[in-house]
Amino acid sequence: MRIITVLLIGFVNFWCMSRLHAQTYVKDVEPIIQSKCVSCHRDGEAAPFPLVTYDDVAKRATFIKEVVKSRYMPPWKADNEYVHFDNDRSLSEKEIRTIVSWVDAGAKEGKRKGREQDLSQLTTGYGRPADMTMVTADTFLVKGNNIERFVEFKIPFELDRSFDVEAIEFFSNNKKLVHHVNYAVQIIEDPAIDIHAAPAMANHTDGAVRHNDPYKKFKRTMAYYGGWIPGASAEAYPPKIGWKMPKRGVILLTVHFSATPIDELSVNGVHLFFTDVPVEREVKVVSFGSGGIGELDIQPSFFMIPADKVSHYSLKFKNPGEDLSMLYIWPHMHYIGKSFKVYATLENNDTIPLVNIPDWDYRWQEMYRYKHFKKIPKGAVIHMECAYDNTAANPFNPFSPPQNIFSYSNMKSDQEMMTLLMIYLPYKEGDENRLTAIPKGP
């Protein structure tokens, strides 16, 4: 019996060692790195170094092992037990074991059937090149005087025809300079309106205060409204869903630049991805809370976050119109945010969980995409419940000692926000069973 036991233990050890040494970068690790890491760890993105090639990964193998074991990377702040989103970039236990085993076995590259895929020229996070990239006319100098800036850029366009859009992504030569971005695609069909007449940009921070909106005449009919926050990926839609890029108009790109101690040059715009499959259902966007619907209804009624306290605020609003099908949900706060939870209650007292971020981190945000269309019936009440840690114990507090923090004006990063954006469609029968999965680019 003892001989059999020894042989069995030996066999198990041999099998485990064989499995351990079988791990290679090409076969086991590269697919994980490309699907979960490269979108941020490449040139032009916010990550501090690239993870595009085997050499990029191998020279940091021990470091990568530690950050994936601790789940510090890849960052994913949503509670998967509450809602498990389709664009979850966190690693499974199996993926973590694969990376750890590969590092422990010597971080071997393995044999390739061809050349290593060249991702160094990948200019988008969507998985394929953009069909059109529209950028600001001039490079903008972000002055190195530690002042945040709000600059609105105008990008005029006149195309041969309109296009069906399946995805859009914010583009920047240096996203580390950007606090957040909003963009509005405005339709200008009237040929009497000169889309080139207004200034190329409106700097709302430097120089004289602008009392008149130089782009007011363009803000009549909006084709689409979206944005970007740190950590967010491309916004994409299932087949036959999206929006129409008009033939003529302007993109108004509002960029909130972070404070920087040195002069930096910034070029910004959007990547557009078109589809030959006609868009049959156009997505819509609505904003709640700070800067949106119900801003004055946040409770407690005066949205001032006192110093040296952890404070709680709430907002609820009713869906008064038709049934909705949600694709994405986008929560947003700033540095002293502590938690952000959203759910809907129905007339029969049932609850629909929408998103829960129990440990808010401003550095890692996302437009969370549901796995299935999320039905929000007419009459449902949506609840936002947010907490803010305005104490000295919060390492991200912009003030030392803590100060009272408000929400007003352009809402700089040392002010606060309690904002929720929803990207949705009017409901159709069976939507709740439909997947939101996005087809992969070539």
- Note poorly predicted spans: 10-20
Termini separation (Å)?
57 Å
Q: Could you tell me the radius of gyration in angstroms? A: 24 Å
Summed over residues and divided by their number, the pLDDT gives a mean of: 88
Largest sheet: 6 strands, mixed
Secondary-structure element sequence? Answer: HHHHHEEEEEEEEEEEEEEEEEEEEE
**CATH class term of the largest domain:** Mainly Beta
What fraction of the residues are assigned to beta strands by DSSP?
25-35%
Which fold name is given in CATH as the topology of the largest domain? Jelly Rolls
Helix coverage percent of residues? 10-25%
Q: Count structural domains.
A: 3
Quickly count the helices.
5
Structural class: alpha+beta
The total count of strands amounts to 21
Instruction: Please name the CATH architecture of the largest domain.
Output: Sandwich
Principal-axis shape equals globular
